[in-house]
Amino acid sequence: MMSRENVTLVEVGLRDGLQNESTPVSASVRADWYNALADAGLRRIEAGSFVSPRWVPQMANTDDVMRQIRHDAKLSAEVLVPNLKGLEGALASDADVIAVFTAASESFNQKNINCSIAESLERFQPVIAGAKQAGKRVRAYVSCVVGCPYEGPIAPAQVARVVEQLLEIGADEISLGDTIGVARPKEIHALLDATLPLLPTNKLALHCHDTRGQAIANIYASLERGIRTFDSAVAGLGGCPYAKGATGNVATEDVLYLLEGEGFDTGVDLDAVARLGDTICKTLDRANPSRVGRALTSC
Ligand code: HMG
Ligand code: MG
Predict the structure, then answer these.
(1) Does residue 101 have its Cβ closer than 6 Å to ligand 1?
(2) If I label 234, which of 11, 192, 249, 271 is the partner at 20 to 30 A Cα–Cα?
């Protein structure tokens, strides 16, 4: 029997989702969507990223988004930061959580942040130290934890090595990213076998992309292993500009439906998220990949 303590969702649609949309969305619309997600009960929400606008133009005005969102003690406004310049922007915007990001694959890391894994860890040291000094929590993403679009399968031991180093330099939480959505429960169990000995379950999150429709099965498998933090995106928005073929994150609506059925408390209003997902899809003129979202809004 699984214990039914609370589950935390980290909503990544406004960052992971919108970074991949061909039409940039204005800062005020992004802020409105952030506030609507907060109204629906989500407490940890990624508002954007402080990365090079030449690399990811869609996230260019994250500082404007941060100015327009509601900041309150119950909400955690989270942003991605690749270097000290990004940290400067994040701190000026009063972000609550700073997320650094690297990978378990050298090739992916080069394409994504233009440096090796070792160089990225070196780059993060002053970023993490600066964030901590400012009283911020630090999340660290590891991409390509099961497979890489350039290198193929990734060994769990390689992921564990990167996780260990991120913990050593001060990361408070690790999010394991199945960037291209290739994982199945068996691979998730192998990944958790290799990483769970390194940190308590409450410091580990799973970040599933649903490219092959396995995300919900993978989340269920990791619930059985004690994981209680999951990244998801309203309306299954998402992808990575540097991972060709990577489709959306697992939809927040689909995860909420699973969790409600299993008796977990998330504090999130599924109907409100589904209505927002529908609005976002209409605004972006895209189909809604969330089956739960479609089921709840089509009648
Ligand atoms: P670089 O070109 O090697 O860096 O890029 P640089 O230091 O030589 O700087 C180049 C230019 O960028 C300079 O401007 C800098 O000022 C500027 P110029 O002088 O040429 O006009 N610059 C910046 N501008 C704003 N904010 C900054 C910043 N840093 C430099 N922070 C760099 C290296 C890391 C900056 C670049 O590769 C980059 O920004 N990459 C971001 C890639 C990205 O955002 N990818 C998507 C997020 S990761 C993801 O989606 C995976 C995840 O969801 C988990 C999963 O699914 O696996 C998290
Ligand atoms: Mg992602």
Answers:
(1) yes
(2) 192
Place of tokens 């500009």: 241
Alpha-carbon distance 175 to 140, whole Å? Answer: 6
Among the listed residues 148, 208, 240, 281, the single catalytic one is 240
What is the per-residue pLDDT across 10-24, written as a single tens digit (0 to 9) for each?
999 999 999 988 888
pLDDT tens string 61-96? 999 999 999 999 999 999 999 999 999 999 999 999
Minimum-distance ligand to the CA of 249? 2
- Residue among 52, 146, 150, 182 to mutate when testing ligand 1 (max atoms within 8 A of CB): 52
- Helix 156-168 and helix 185-195: axis angle, to 10°? 40
Distances (CA, A) of 223 to 139, 206, 278: 20, 10, 28
Q: Are residues 251 and 286 in contact, defined by beta-carbon separation less than 8 angstroms?
A: no
pLDDT in tens, 253-284: 999 999 999 999 899 999 999 999 999 999 99
What are 171's two structure tokens?
A: 């990361």
Token digits of residue 186: 């068996």
Token pair of 212 as six digits? 């092959």
The neighbouring-strand residues paired with 10 are 44, 231
CATH of domain 8-297: 3.20.20.70
Give the start-to-end residue ranges of the domains of the chain. 8-297
3-state DSSP assignment of residue 74: coil
Please tell me if the CB atom of residue 112 comes closer than 6 angstroms to any atom of ligand 1: yes
Nearest to residue 260, comparing CAs of 45, 82, 6, 1? 6
φ/ψ region of 191 (left if φ > 0, alpha if ψ in -120 to 50, else beta) reads alpha
DSSP result, 230-283: EEEBGGG----TTSTT--PBPBHHHHHHHHHHTT------HHHHHHHHHHHHHH
Residue 115 is among the residues annotated as catalytic for this protein: no
